[in-house]
Amino acid sequence: MTLSTASSDPADHAAPILVKDRYFKPLLSKEAIAQRLAHLGKRIEADYQNDLPLFIGVLNGSFVFAADLVRYIAIPCHFSFVKYASYQDKMQSSGVVQELIGLNENLSNRRVVVIEDIVDTGNTMVKILAYLREKGVEDVEIAALLVKPTALQHDISVKYVGFEIENQFVVGYGLDYDGYGRNLDSLYVVSDL
Ligand code: IMP
Fold first, then answer.
1. Which of 16, 43, 60, 118 is spaced 20 to 30 Å from 157 by Cα?
2. Which residues line ligand 1 (CB under 6 A)?
3. E strand spans, the chain
4. Burial category of 13 from C-beta neighbours within 10 Å (exposed 0-12, middle 13-18, buried 19 and up)
């Protein structure tokens, strides 16, 4: 689903909010997100009926998305989180990917779905995919709440896309601005007010 910042979502007409020291305007309401997640969840459920998929959420940003998405998937599955940091500048992807930690499962011959908050340049995801393939997974797909197609620098395919957005900084629903805003229950985009 492609989303323009000139969306007709009523949330767009609400007042901007201050997160730390920048203003953000509403981009996607929690209702719109929930509706999209229900759709994605059903697709994933249908694709992995008898496969005992392993869902891997990428911390910190995916913790809200992952928790909500898996509750729309009613088949046997395993779930794990990994953590690393690639976004150290306040509003710019550093492109530096650090070591992946937290994965204790045997990945050999597993069908894996990586659950990510946002695919921006794709630097992070390329490393994660390489790591998982090296560990012998049967196959791996990506579920991303948001994708910024014009920022993408790698040839990666995101099978389960929540929303495609413009190349603008967003916050809320797990995503942060300098550590702030993860607890917002909907998504906001930086505003130039
Ligand atoms: P990538 O490696 O450039 O694809 O960046 C992936 C990570 O950067 C995401 O998992 C987020 O943590 C962070 N990121 C990218 N864009 C945004 C944004 O607009 N808001 C908040 N975090 C972002």
1. 60
2. 61, 86-87, 93, 116-125, 169-171, 175
3. 17-19, 22-28, 54-59, 78-83, 111-119, 139-147, 160-164, 170-171, 187-190
4. exposed
The pLDDT tens digits for 65-111 are 999 999 999 999 999 999 975 445 555 555 555 678 888 889 999 99
DSSP-based three-state secondary structure for 183:
coil
Rounded-to-10 torsion of CA 172, 177, 180, 181: -10
Of residues 162, 176, 70, 147, the one with CA closest to residue 113: 70
Which protein residue's CA is at the shortest distance from atom 17 of ligand 1? 169
Give me ligand 1 centre to Cα 50, in Å: 32
Catalytic choice (68, 117, 120, 176): 120
Over residues 31-57, the mean pLDDT reads 97
Fold of 10-190: Rossmann fold (3.40.50)
